[in-house]
TrEMBL record:
UniProt keyword list: Cell cycle, Cell division
Protein's GO biological process: cell division
Lineage, uppermost ranks: Eukaryota, Metazoa, Spiralia, Lophotrochozoa, Mollusca
Domain of life according to the entry: Eukaryota
Family per similarity comment: Belongs to the CDC123 family.
GO CC entries: cytoplasm
Name this polypeptide is given: Cell division cycle protein 123 homolog isoform X2
Length: 358
């Protein structure tokens, strides 16, 4: 077990160019035959401004399948329901919600052509997509979706996830902050931020693996979802590892521009592996069931590689890394004791509440 002190002292050199080469638009065209079908849409300046703006307001034109005045809530099979087609009833309904409300309503943005491109891409990809930007997907924001997944069927689903994600904010504001050649005031490479819409495939966490490659040599493999025990992984360990090794050797190594990288794959079945994504080889990427210190040791070890890790029993299951994102930041700060002023305010509230009760 690597101590926290040893891990904090560990550092893998990672350059801005390494991060840029792992951006989805940089590699997709070369590997599109071995990964999920995707459509790339450059982000207009208006949408980038929207992502940086506080608050969450969705465009009126970006939704479908919701109530609108034009259809008076008529759904399939409801044609004979007179109540749903009663215009007077609908006017009363709208009046009830609007009476006595003095709250200021934020102006809904309008993305025009960009919104149309997103709708068209979703339709082209079968009506269901998985969104991400250059590097990250908004998986930390899945809690805000109705079905707690990243499946999107309309632009508003996409915008909601992107606006609610800290991972997306990191992509936009701090993509190079852990690079050794990053200087805060230095001129950074010009970036074209891109919305990536990938054809939705029902996820199967039991078949997803993260692979660590150094000098085009696979040194470590682990299951991506450490929150559950999958007995079949242990049973089929040798087959899984053999297929992944062959896939990386034949389809990835020597073809990807980087020699050190992290690649995520899906082992669909014996002899069939597909590419999910590339990530930089460094602390900016979650090492999951390894630590970066351990991976550094594997680079110099003579023993047979790659090292394979998976959850080997129910006792080895780890808690979800994304559960805390569903809690307000103030609650997280209080629980962690990171903001004494918030704690003092909280104690004052408790004191005043008790005084009022007495």
């Amino acid at each position: 077990m690597v101590t926290a002190e040893a891990e904090s002292e560990f550092h893998i050199k990672m350059k801005i160019s390494n991060v840029c080469n792992c951006a989805f638009p940089e590699w997709y065209s070369k590997f599109k035959t071995i990964t999920t079908e995707s459509i790339l849409i450059p982000l207009p300046e208006s949408f980038l401004t929207y992502l940086h703006t506080d608050g969450l307001v969705l465009p009126n034109s970006s939704t479908h399948g919701v109530y609108g005045k034009a259809n008076n809530l008529i759904m399939d099979g409801d044609v004979e329901d007179e109540d749903l087609r009663d215009d007077e009833l609908m006017r009363m309904y709208e009046s009830d919600w609007s009476t006595g409300c003095s709250t200021l309503i934020a102006e809904s943005p309008d993305f025009g052509e960009f919104d149309l491109k997103v709708k068209a891409a979703i339709k082209t990809l079968g009506g269901r997509v998985f969104p991400k930007l250059n590097w990250s997907s908004p998986k930390d924001a899945s809690w805000i979706a109705f079905d707690k997944s990243l499946m999107c069927t309309c632009p508003s689903d996409v915008y909601l996830l992107l606006k609610s994600s800290q991972f997306i904010s990191h992509d936009l504001d701090q993509p190079f902050d852990q690079c050794e050649d990053y200087q805060k005031d230095a001129l950074l490479p010009s970036l074209t931020y891109t919305l990536v819409l990938r054809k939705w495939e029902p996820p199967n966490p039991a078949s997803e693996f993260r692979c660590f490659v150094h000098n085009n040599k696979l040194i470590g493999v682990c299951q991506r979802n450490a929150n559950k025990f999958y007995p079949h992984i242990i049973v089929n360990k040798n087959v899984v590892l053999e297929d992944i090794c062959e896939f990386v050797k034949i389809h990835i190594a020597e073809k990807f521009v980087e020699t050190n990288y992290v690649v995520d794959v899906v082992h669909v079945k014996q002899g069939h592996v597909i590419l999910i994504d590339f990530n930089p080889f460094g602390p900016v990427t979650d090492a999951l069931m390894f630590t970066w210190s351990e991976l550094s040791d594997l680079i110099t070890q003579i023993k047979e590689l790659p090292c394979f890790r998976c959850v080997e029993s129910e006792e080895g299951v780890q808690c979800s890394d994304y559960a805390n994102f569903a809690f307000p930041q103030d609650i997280q700060d209080l629980a962690a004791g990171e903001d004494p002023y918030k704690f003092m305010d909280w104690m004052k509230i408790i004191k005043n509440t008790r005084a009022a009760v007495c």
